[in-house]
TrEMBL record:
<dbReference type="GO" id="GO:0015833">
    <property type="term" value="P:peptide transport"/>
</dbReference>
<feature type="domain" description="Solute-binding protein family 5">
    <location>
        <begin position="1"/>
        <end position="150"/>
    </location>
</feature>
<comment type="similarity">
    <text>Belongs to the bacterial solute-binding protein 5 family.</text>
</comment>
<keyword id="KW-0813">Transport</keyword>
<dbReference type="InterPro" id="IPR000914">
    <property type="entry name" value="SBP_5_dom"/>
</dbReference>
<dbReference type="InterPro" id="IPR039424">
    <property type="entry name" value="SBP_5"/>
</dbReference>
<dbReference type="GO" id="GO:1904680">
    <property type="term" value="F:peptide transmembrane transporter activity"/>
</dbReference>
<keyword id="KW-0732">Signal</keyword>
<protein>
    <recommendedName>
        <fullName>Solute-binding protein family 5 domain-containing protein</fullName>
    </recommendedName>
</protein>
<dbReference type="Pfam" id="PF00496">
    <property type="entry name" value="SBP_bac_5"/>
</dbReference>
Amino acid sequence: MTLALDRERIINQYLNGMGIEITGPFAHDSAAYDQSIKPWPYDPQFARELLEEEGWYDSDGDGVIDKEIEGKRVPFAFSLTYFVKNPTTKSIVEYVATALNELGILVKLNGVDLADLSAAIDGKSLEAICMGWGLGTPPENPRQLWYSSGAKEPGSSNFIGFSNKEADQIIDALDFEEDPETRIKLYHRFHAIIHEEQPYTFLYAPKTLYLYRNYLKNVFIPADRQDLVPGADIAQPDGSVIWIEKRG
């Protein structure tokens, strides 16, 4: 799936370039994110070859690839659910459907409101979904989204049903490991597992512009986030106090 999607096009065409391609489940600027893992390339021909290796091809000339499963020809078709009131998401899923259709995969777009989206996630009644995450602050804990015990549990955040023994072992180890270097190695191995198995197709992390007048003082820009505002030097601001510098 990932090979069939041009993530750079998505970023440039639908986000006006305000995004960065990512490969895994952690924030891109986090130490848990392994920068050495490179994105899978956009290579629809290779994607087609992999599908054919797995027995997916158009056997009847109807434009949709299919495969014999338990004695029956099954078309490669699925429903892609998304939040219908987000215009950016709508544009992205329309592109996804078009790109996959070129490989003979039939994608039915299913735009729903927030209540129906939440119900589908809780009930694990989704075939595929396009959505975004809001990640918390470090230390990262993958348990909620990725631990195997949640794969079949209604209402769990592991609504894609991901299950991997080694990933579970890493998550368990992170609960007790305190050495920073060892934790980073565990995070990076976990990242590599997700990258190889591709339970999600990670598209991008959005970039954000922060604009404010230079006479507005004590704006909370942490000193360690030079990527946001070069020269930021407020280490421990008082978030309840912001003032405007007297001018003229």
